[in-house]
Protein 1
Amino acid sequence: MAKVYLENLTKIFEGRVLAVDRLTLEIPDKGLVSLLGPSGCGKTTTMRMIAGLEVPTRGKIYFDDQEVTDLPPEERNVAMVFQFPVIYPGMTVFENIAFPLVARKVPKKEVKKRVEEVANVFGIADVLSKKAHILDAGTRQKVVLARTFVRRPHVYLLDEPLTSVDPSTRVELRTVLKKLQSHLGQTMVYVTHDQSEALTLADRIAVMNEGKLLQYGSPEEVYNNPKNTFVGYFIGNPGMNFIGCSVEEEKGSCVLNAEDFRVFVPDLPNSFLRDFVGKKIILGIRPENLEIHAKAVSGAISFLVILVEPVGNRLVVHLKKGEKVLKAKIPRQEMSLQQEVWVRFPLEFLKFFDGETLETIEV
Ligand SMILES: Nc1ncnc2c1ncn2[C@@H]1O[C@H](COP(=O)(O)OP(=O)(O)OP(=O)(O)O)[C@@H](O)[C@H]1O
Ligand SMILES: [Mg+2]
């Protein structure tokens, strides 16, 4: 068991590719932290540095209070699972899972007990005697995960382990992993570029972009209070709507002028927005927080429906007014193209970002 602390971790490849940029992050002991970000943002490089497979250009790595920056991988007691399963094709499933234990000269009886235990957890007890190469991709990844968990290392590093697995197995394995992690009480770092996976799995999410840590917080924090527009957009399905506005004053109220429409924020004198009168800001609102009405209601703005996408039991409705397009996520209902609807922006859900830095404006 270990807390992992990354201090100003930086990796520059070939003297020019800045893959990870001054990353400081504390992964609590027994925590399940997800590294989330788009392709190329430095997730795998970070994991490889934690595992000892890549030497940082600058910065330090600690496990608990011990600095491990220069320790070779085999002395770190971490296990890493990669995107694509790596199995020993000539061996049976049992031998594949037992491999790390046999290599450590664990007694045979104990090996058998632990392999059977973990095979049950991953639902592969019935294929233990089969040769690994005949298995499908999903089962192979189960074998790899079982082999990782049989070993009980200090830290588990899982790098998009469910990518090559079909969707139903993915949901099943996600649950197994979460249960195992909390049952074993071990530290796990889980890389994904799928925000819904991070939201369902992790205790804390580290959102990265271009090698930098943008925000580190609980799923609720990153969802409810994104630190900047990137996090607001990246988290959520679909991501947050953003509307560039200038802040104006009208009869003591604040008006956010988006050119195609205006949003009123009453009580300007009490509002932090008064400091922004005459300036540009970005208004953010999540698609699920827009209020859609079939008839005109007070304070609502009329929009035209230009696209309707069913997503599970909900609809994502694309709405247009002038040049502006917003997405609203609403319960399934009759909604036709070119229909006029009225949109309200509930004050309690409005987020404000600086028009230049794109960082959240602290209220
Ligand atoms: N060995 C390497 N040599 C040179 N550049 C590299 C090397 N490994 C990674 N990079 C670059 O470093 C950056 C970060 O890559 P990394 O693989 O860590 O991203 P990632 O977040 O894991 O992306 P993905 O979601 O696609 O797996 C990218 O620009 C990548 O091209
Ligand atoms: Mg990667």
Note: The chain has two domains: 4-229, 241-354.
Protein 2
Amino acid sequence: MKIQVIIGSTRPNRFSEKPAKWIFEKLSKMEGVEAELIDLRNWPLPFFNEPMSPNASKGKYTLDLAAKWAEKIGEGDAYIMVTPEYNHGYSAVLKNAIDYVFAQWHNKPVAFISYGGIAAGTRAVQQLRQVVIELQMVPIRNGVHFPFSWTMVDENGNLKPGAFESAEDTAKNMLEQLIWFAKMLKTAREETTMSS
Ligand SMILES: Cc1cc2nc3c(=O)[nH]c(=O)nc-3n(C[C@H](O)[C@H](O)[C@H](O)COP(=O)(O)O)c2cc1C
């Protein structure tokens, strides 16, 4: 089972990669799980400008990178999207990456890790939940949310020791749910088809 962790910010001094690497390391140690860290910096997709939506074009792209991106997402059986909160929403770079793909997201579960100020990025996650349902995904109930993420790093931008400790149990629950749905949906995808 392949689980892809998507880093939802590409800023130079982003926080995003810290929780992404933290959860990626946990996944890497799990038996039966192949973990992949997907850095959107390595996927410099332009703002969506294909002549047709990936739904209408049935996954045919004019841009080679877009076709490769859809193929990459198609390899996943489950996803963890790691998102900041920007103006009470999620990042534009993440939305753009989501919009480039359609069928490859279908019938797969997704969990969320968020961070930001007092609301810990939860407003961004609530919006993402609506979006992924249109992509026929299964958003997992349990997520991990870090408030005041900027206090979790020192003046050099390094993670403070024990910064993620309080989230260990929540992360465990989230992964348990994600893997449960990943197994069920993988079996279902292999055994049956569903029209979109
Ligand atoms: C354009 C912008 C808007 C932001 N708006 C919010 C916000 O509405 N709520 C919040 O909690 N944090 C907000 N923040 C703070 C970010 O959540 C915080 O800086 C976070 O570390 C950014 O994620 P990143 O470092 O991975 O890019 C905002 C940051 C930026 C750059």
Note: Helices lie at 17-28, 64-74, 92-99, 122-134, 168-191.
